[in-house]
């Protein structure tokens, strides 16, 4: 047995409560690392982009930014065997929603329209609302 192998503790010889504490600490460390990485990328420039000025007009892009993260750890004990687990992940989403136009000292917010959300979805809902009662009546007649 090498000196390195002697330093490692056999999981079967560690009391279960110590493994629970170690697992909880590993989980907290994992979540802290994820929050630090993602939080460091979330800034004002992620929501309001760098202003662009041309011909006396300044445009400031605006985005909706969301981020989330999660992690976990686990342990099972079967007789003298102990298994450990862990995991985590996170993500960031940035979606342009409009821009601020500054012209002659006056600022105006201009939303970016989403044709699907603003036109197609309401039309689909209207078509469904008009045809659904007819379809229900037709089904009732068959029974």
Task: Please provide a written account of the structure.
It is a single chain. The protein is of the alpha+beta class. It has 2 domains: 3-112, no CATH class; 113-143. The chain has 4 helices and 4 strands; from the N terminus they run H-H-H-E-E-E-E-H. It has helices at residues 3-7, 16-41, 44-47, 115-142; strands at 52-54, 57-78, 81-103, 106-111. It has a 4-stranded antiparallel β-sheet, covered by helices on one side. The longest helix is centred in the last third of the chain and has 28 residues, at 115-142. The chain is flat and about 60 Å long. The chain starts with a helix and ends with a helix.
β content, as a range? 35-45%
Count structural domains: 2
Determine the fraction of residues in helical runs and give it as a percent range. Answer: 40-55%
Rg is: 28 Å
Strand order of the largest sheet: 1-2-3-4
Query: How do the SSEs run, as a string of H and E?
Result: HHHEEEEH
Largest sheet: 4 strands, antiparallel
Distance between the termini: 80 Å
Q: How many H/I helices?
A: 4
Question: How many β-strands, per DSSP?
Answer: 4
Overall spatial form: flat
What value does the average pLDDT take?
74
Q: List unreliable stretches of 5+ residues.
A: 1-12, 14-19
Structural class: alpha+beta
